[in-house]
Design brief:
By secondary structure, the chain is an all-beta fold. Helix content is 0%, strand content 48%. The strands form two sheets. Strands 2, 4, 5, 6, 9, 10 and 11 form a seven-stranded mixed sheet that branches. It has a four-stranded antiparallel sheet with strand order 1-3-8-7, with no helix packed on it.
Length: 126
């Protein structure tokens, strides 16, 4: 059973940076397609970024492209999300999700990921 634990959330001012980590157990992260989703109050959960398994590419939502960087640290069995130039619109609970067999067209869909972390709050204030 894959278990995911997020860490690194917190509060930051506009323009600041935060780094999130997703630590996996039960499976190596290299064998998982891992994604970050976020959900703001009153809004639906939305795709942020994903990194495909076995050296596949990294993909970003247009809203975060150029500001967020997702990477995998195989030695730590961890996936990270570096968030720069944060705005109040980035305020949300951020979730790590993982799946074993996702085709490229599915990576943005939350329903395709069977494994989820508990979420970590990110708050950006002006």
């Amino acid at each position: 059973q894959v278990q995911l634990v997020e860490s690194g959330g917190g509060s930051v001012q506009v323009g600041g940076s935060l780094g999130l980590s997703c630590s996996a157990s039960g499976r190596t992260v290299n064998a998982l397609t891992v994604a970050w989703f976020r959900q703001a109050p009153g809004k639906e959960r939305e795709f942020v970024a994903a990194i495909r398994r076995f050296g596949g590419g990294t993909y970003y939502a247009d809203s975060v492209k150029g500001r967020f960087t997702m990477s995998r640290e195989n030695a730590k069995n961890t996936v990270t999300l570096q968030m720069d130039s944060l705005t109040p619109e980035d305020t949300a609970v951020y979730y790590c999700a993982a799946g074993e067999s996702l085709i490229l067209s599915s990576i943005g869909g939350a329903r395709h990921y069977p494994h989820w972390g508990q979420g970590t709050q990110v708050t950006v204030s002006s």
